[in-house]
């Protein structure tokens, strides 16, 4: 049996990565800092970020799983209409916890305290994207970032976040 103090910090094997993007409406509304703050306050680690204007073709690849939906073309066009803050965050259970932090896709169904519950009103302008599964997170991270764009670092607070 593992002793209470035998493991002071989480191993890298326990860590997950997820892709988070502040959409054009979130960027235009000046919400990038608020969103970063929420992830940092939660204790997650930012390991890659870039401010980009993605092409419509790039967005079609990103949302490929939605290609049969009636809103697909409009979504891809909208997402390429302005800058996006693309980020990779790391932490234990981050895919699940980030989705909880984001709230429901439809802000009207989101709880107060969630990003969408606090900061937006309309499903078509829901300010943020987050990977919904570990597999999708890997696919999205690989689509947006090259290996050399990641920063490997250890926050001073890590020992206070993980056993």
UniProtKB/TrEMBL annotation:
InterPro entries: NDK-like_dom, NDK-like_dom_sf, Nucleoside_diP_kinase. It holds the Pfam family NDK. CDD domains: NDPk_I. It is found in: Cell projection, Lamellipodium; Cell projection, Ruffle; Cytoplasm; Nucleus. It catalyses: a 2'-deoxyribonucleoside 5'-diphosphate + ATP = a 2'-deoxyribonucleoside 5'-triphosphate + ADP; a ribonucleoside 5'-diphosphate + ATP = a ribonucleoside 5'-triphosphate + ADP. ATP binds at residues 23, 71, 99, 105, 116, 126. Its EC number is 2.7.4.6. Residues 15-152 form the Nucleoside diphosphate kinase-like domain. HAMAP family: NDP_kinase. Major role in the synthesis of nucleoside triphosphates other than ATP. This is Nucleoside diphosphate kinase B.
